[in-house]
Design a protein that fits this description.
Its EC number is 1.14.19.-. With 201 residues, the protein is an all-alpha fold. It is built from 7 helices and no strands. It binds fe (ii) ion.
């Protein structure tokens, strides 16, 4: 429904300046801040559409990564750790189910803005809430953590593409009809992105 105003969405298609700014600010704050974990800035602009889509993605990512960690732990005889990670994985699956249901409803009542939000979020790339994790010493702690996770197969670019494909199918994005030109572009973008991510690996 092109041209319709959504009171929730006026800042949504506004570009990336806002989160770059807050990213810099977070980094500046680290110097004088003793926190071990600093979990902020998911790049969702305080916009509920972006937030719910991003969280759906993250919940599935944590479901997958904890499941993979559980398997690794089991392979190495760490059965307690395997059980803990397995329990967390099933919890994350429940979170994924809850959030994806909410977004499913958004697609039902507001397909135009929801598909724009999905495309917007994927253009920015989904960052995990822990990407600003800090231990007081390593300025690149999350990058190092991510590199290890990739190397071990705990969470890889293939998982990222798989999650995107799962969500596209879960929300039946390819079947949305009656979108505006802008909505159709957003739909094409998200529906064709996963293979591109896999090729770029
Ligand atoms: Fe969760």
């Amino acid at each position: 429904m092109a041209g319709r105003e959504s009171p929730l969405l006026s800042p949504m298609i506004s570009g990336d300046e806002a989160f770059h700014h807050s990213d810099n600010k977070e980094r500046e704050n680290r110097n004088g801040f003793e926190s071990v974990l600093h979990l902020q800035d998911p790049r969702t602009e305080n916009n509920p559409y972006l937030d719910l889509i991003s969280t759906s993605f993250q919940e599935r990512a944590t479901f997958i990564s904890h499941g993979n960690t559980a398997r690794l732990a089991e392979d190495h005889g760490e059965l307690n750790l395997a059980q803990i990670c397995g329990t967390i994985a099933s919890d994350e699956k429940l979170h994924e189910t809850a959030y994806t249901k909410v977004v499913e409803k958004l697609f039902e009542v507001d397909p135009h803005y929801t598909v724009l939000a999905f495309a917007n979020m994927m253009r920015k790339k989904i960052t995990m809430p822990a990407h600003l994790i800090y231990d007081g010493r390593d300025d690149n702690l999350f990058e190092h953590f991510s590199a290890v996770a990739r190397r071990l197969g705990v969470y890889t670019a293939k998982d990222y593409a798989d999650i995107l494909e799962f969500l596209v199918s879960r929300w039946k994005v390819g079947e949305l009809a009656g979108l505006s030109g802008e909505g159709n572009k957003a739909q094409d973008f998200v529906c064709t992105l996963a293979p591109k991510i896999r090729q770029a690996r």
